[in-house]
Amino acid sequence: MIAALARSGTDVHLQHADISLDFQNVLGQLLKRAQQAGSARNDIQVTDITAMLFGIMRTLENNDDAGLSERVLSVLCEGLRNREVAGG
What we know:
The protein has 88 residues and is mainly α.
């Protein structure tokens, strides 16, 4: 995901610097808890999620599709699920 954003011309490192440290810390804690509970994939890192969120935000900018944000966030959340626990 990070490579795809970089190829699209997005300065991923600059974008990541703009996220508050508090947000990253809270996101990291939530991710760790979900991974420990077996709900989230163990191969996901906070940087993966922030890269995906930036991609989603960029996609949603100036988009007239009212249902797009709900569909994209649903796909993101589904992709974070631990497949072994989710049954597939």
